Amino acid sequence: MKLLVVGGGGREHAIIKKLKENPQVDTIYALPGNGGIAADAVCVPEIGAKDIAKIVEFARAHAIDFAVVAPDDPLALGCVDRLHEVGIPCFGPEAKAARIEASKVFSKNLMKKYGIPTARYEVFSDADKAMAYLRGCEFPIVIKADGLALGKGVLIPTNYDEAAAAIKSIMEDKAFGDSGNEVVIEEFLTGPEVSVLAFTDGTAIAPMISSMDHKRAGDGDTGLNTGGMGTIAPNPYYTEDVAKACMEEIFLPTLAAMRQEGCPFKGCLYFGLMITKNGPKVIEYNCRFGDPETQVVLPLLETDLLTIMQAVENETLSSVDVKWSSEAAACVILASGGYPGSYEKGKEMTFPEAYPDNVVCYHAGDKLKDGRLVTNGGRVLGITATAPTLKQALADAYAAADTISFDGKYMRHDIGRRALAVI
Ligand code: AMP
Ligand code: GLY
After folding, report:
1. Is the CB of 386 under 6 A from ligand 2?
2. CB 97 within 8 A of CB 81
3. Which pTM does this prediction carry?
4. Which of 77, 96, 138, 299 is deepest in the core (most CB within 10 A)?
5. CA 190, CA 139: separation in Å to the nearest integer?
6. Domain containing 83 — which CATH number?
7. Which ligand neighbours the alpha carbon of 331 most closely?
């Protein structure tokens, strides 16, 4: 079989490595892929993940049997819709369903209409009205740009002046472009955060192993927000009771709501949850696999990934027994010094001859230059280890991370520390 994966980060590398385990898979094309992914797939750097017309043309020309669209942008732009139009089966939601991530106004209104627990909120399309509303609010408060904003569209001001500045920057100065035409202003919730990714064909759902992201750049959850500096799985806050409540109050009602709205969700639905004193609440939905959650979740998957993805597309997920390892996994991100601010690219990298059997190096932001790998992004590599305990997985991931070097290499040294404290 010939497969196509749209995207070129660590998440896509983890998806590709897992898909390759199926002996029926002959070739995987990655559009655009990256330097490290080139060891596992045929990369096409000329075609970016947002070049929908070129992706579709490529898929037709190469008689692709199955496509996986991983990032949010092409999903929101209708990449799956266009591939379906030319008869190519895909994993991923169509644009209408991708709105669950692409529009926060859509997802908040959906939750309100169907009684799905989330933070209380108001929507504004007028900056003056938003500022007037903020005068009567308690702080901190959460302000979210409606559209996709590279994970930067959430601001948590602690007083009125900061909040007014945030409204000005999003709605008047258009810091996130048209994504800021509308804003959601919502209640600040507290509690541990849990990420749950789930396979769903619109009706049946198979939640994956829960995970915990570490979004801040610095140790002790300090510094700027990033795309994610490391992950662990399973997340110890996601107890059996919490999982049961999530299934009944959040997961199944969300799928039913999407069907009711005429946009059943097929693909990987990501639930960003906060476990509050009043039970689990939805912080955000993503219409795709999380990055770097995927790098700890998929290594624990025991069932063939392609079989699951095809069942999602064929709406037969209930007939697949999706099995998970009982081990733990940890992923440590190696980033370019300066990330998420400005950083240099093109640094030569050196790797060990081989990794221990329980360690995988996922390539997130590198490229080949004269046959050698050089850094080419903020998040460069994700080192994942699996082991019977989280403590061992973390020790092994960090030991492997130390065997890789490049100029300016930066990582957090406390991934998993909070999770270990509650195990
Ligand atoms: P997002 O970009 O939507 O993933 O949000 C980034 C982060 O902002 C989340 O991971 C939370 O830590 C925080 N956040 C978002 N909404 C809220 C909320 N209502 N209360 C508290 N924190 C929030
Ligand atoms: N790690 C968070 C995300 O993928 O959005």
Report:
1. no
2. no
3. 0.97
4. 299
5. 13
6. 3.40.50.20
7. 2
